[in-house]
Amino acid sequence: MTITVQSRPSAAARRSGLERLAGPLLVLGGIAFSIGGATHPRDNGTGNKVQQLHDMLVKPAWYPSHAVMVAAMALFAAAIFALRQRPGLTPGIERTLKWVFVIASVATIAMVTHLFAALDAESLAGGKPSLVSRVQTVNETVFDAAWGVALATLAVVGGLTRTVGNRITIPFGVVGGLAFALASATIAYTDTFDPLFQVGSLLSLWAILVGVTAIRGRR
Fold first, then answer.
1. Residue 5 pLDDT more than 60?
2. Are 183 and 158 in contact (CB under 8 A)?
């Protein structure tokens, strides 16, 4: 009688399996980010910033668009975690991926909070600041802005070293990330930079290009 003993996958094999997911996760994240941005409700442009926020919160598109945005940010964070499993990363790339992953994870949690802000939309009906508006201000001006800057940084460092994209993908990540960061950092105070959210959609293209490059590289 022959007994076959199946060994458990080694740590290296598990890391390799996770690494393979980076490309598909980035592609899906880029698509979701594009859909979330395209379906985001718009305010009517009247009243102060609190009234404008209330106008968006009560629109039916709020929940589906932000649910997709939560998925997009979660996919980005998961992709970055998968990228950290690549063997032979330089210390500089490892540090960059580590901090981008931390920021991406925190931003995902903040986006979940942003999603459920509509539950207390009526507290903003009078146009006066409330806990909801203050939390959203922090989410957008701090966490969303940091997320954009982090991805722009990853686009540069990863592109130059050809570990995350290449030199061709750098401009899409940098312009998209910084545009999204600037629009997020100022949205609670002025409408001037709101059009930059559309430019921020270049992050979608960056993620898809980097993801496809990673998939083709694995093949």
1. no
2. no
